[in-house]
Amino acid sequence: MTAVSVPDDVRERLRSYLWEQLEGIGWGVLTAAEKTVYYQRWTADPAIGGVLNRYMETARVRVYIKDAMLKPYARLRLADWARCSRVLGVSADAEVAESFIKPHGRRLADGRVICWGNAAAWKIVLTAVFERSYGRSGVRAYAAVLLRATGRYRDDGVRAMVADAATRLGVERLVWLDT
Length: 179
Known about the structure:
Elements: H1 8-25, H2 32-44, H3 49-52, H4 58-78, H5 81-88, E1 96-100, E2 104-108, E3 112-118, H6 122-133, E4 140-147, H7 156-168, E5 173-177
Parallel strand pairs: 3-4, 4-5
Antiparallel strand pairs: 1-2, 2-3
């Protein structure tokens, strides 16, 4: 079977359906093994994998679901400034002087630098807060928000180590957002 692109209306219908399911199952906090079960289920589901199989080889369906359907969801959820601002007690409409990606972050007009990302990427997030504020007059390393803290990142010892690193880098606040 030759690979053919999935029509926009079909892709959008499947995307909407899958994203609704992701919200209901708490996708962001599932382990890789738990996610694998869902990938297998969706690939075998005639309403998802069966539909996609009309446009691509069976071997490509799981990869398509993961890369084309679910990665955009993860990126969108990760980019959610409102969640981060809420846990920090910062107005969601605070004036932004600069926005960042990889990892996500903001330098607010008042000079506070805030970065956020998955707990597993804590080193990158903390370093970004430090780097984006270092040596800049009126700019300070205000906060790091670590999301999707699952597995070892729920351990008090690991969190203490990360908090120590944040302190050493001059990050004023460290917030764990487990969901």
